């Protein structure tokens, strides 16, 4: 009886020790993979512009980008968007990230190394020397005053060649309407191309957001009449 008891205790001890070791290894692996997220979470209370975006939102934006296009990401946030961008874009595609928060930018740099180019500056005032096929913004527009909203969208249009993806709160507020007015004004005074707006609703993010996609489309110009018709027209006179 004592022998069976000792064997049972030994087996139970082995199981407990093995469970502790396995749990420790698993916890270490998780820490190595997601340690940068813990650093970000600690900063969230002090940074109102850090807008956490879930996997569903991050996957959503990749439906609207050009896989071979050079890309500008405005605001690195919690790196979720960047994770999916890197998977979606072709390996040699250039990715530039601009963020005024050096702490978050350094975390992204530690994780992605030379895969991206990192710019520690304010997007509104930074001087760009080129335009981008994909411009993706994680800026929470409702946190900015209206005069900054106009500057931000003017800059979006100036540095984007083709695609602009951004996020908006689903809660109606005056800045949503203001953004639509800016887009309408942009189209009103241009006879060569227009920006079309597509909105994808998403209720699974906290806070709930819409994915907004702006695409530049060339306006079809009327074809000139064939030479023969022009000649006939002149002969009739």
Would you give an account of this structure?
By secondary structure, this protein is an alpha/beta fold. The protein folds into two domains: 44 residues; 164 residues, Vaccinia Virus protein VP39 (Rossmann fold, 3-Layer(aba) Sandwich), CATH 3.40.50. The chain is built from seven helices and seven strands; from the N terminus they run ααβαβαββαβαββα. The protein has a seven-stranded mixed sheet, sandwiched between helices. Helix 2 packs across helix 3 and helix 5 crosses helix 6.
Write the layout of secondary structure elements.
Elements: H1 2-43, H2 55-61, E1 71-74, H3 80-88, E2 95-98, H4 102-112, E3 117-119, E4 132-137, H5 146-159, E5 160-169, H6 174-188, E6 193-202, E7 209-218, H7 227-236
Parallel strand pairs: 1-2, 1-4, 2-3, 4-5
Antiparallel strand pairs: 5-7, 6-7
């Amino acid at each position: 009886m004592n022998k069976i008891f000792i064997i049972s205790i030994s087996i139970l001890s082995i199981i407990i020790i093995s469970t502790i070791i396995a749990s420790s290894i698993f916890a270490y692996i998780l820490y190595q993979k997601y340690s940068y997220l813990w650093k970000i979470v600690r900063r969230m209370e002090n940074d109102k512009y850090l807008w956490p975006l879930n996997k569903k939102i991050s996957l959503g934006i990749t439906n609207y980008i050009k896989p071979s296009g050079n890309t500008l990401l405005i605001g690195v946030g919690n790196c979720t968007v960047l994770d999916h961008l890197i998977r979606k874009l072709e390996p040699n595609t250039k990715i530039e990230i601009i963020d005024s928060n050096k702490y978050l930018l350094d975390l992204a740099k530690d994780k992605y190394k030379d895969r991206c180019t990192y710019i520690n500056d304010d997007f509104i005032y930074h001087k760009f020397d080129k335009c981008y096929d994909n411009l993706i913004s994680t800026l929470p527009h409702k946190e900015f005053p209206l005069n900054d909203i106009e500057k931000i969208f003017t800059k979006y249009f100036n540095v984007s060649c083709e695609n602009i993806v951004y996020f908006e709160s689903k809660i109606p507020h005056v800045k949503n309407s203001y953004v639509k007015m800016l887009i309408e004004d942009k189209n009103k005074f241009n006879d060569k191309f227009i920006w079309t707006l597509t909105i994808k609703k998403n209720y699974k993010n906290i806070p709930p957001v819409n994915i907004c996609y702006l695409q530049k489309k060339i306006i079809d110009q009327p074809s000139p009449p064939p030479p023969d018709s022009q000649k006939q027209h002149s002969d009739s006179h």
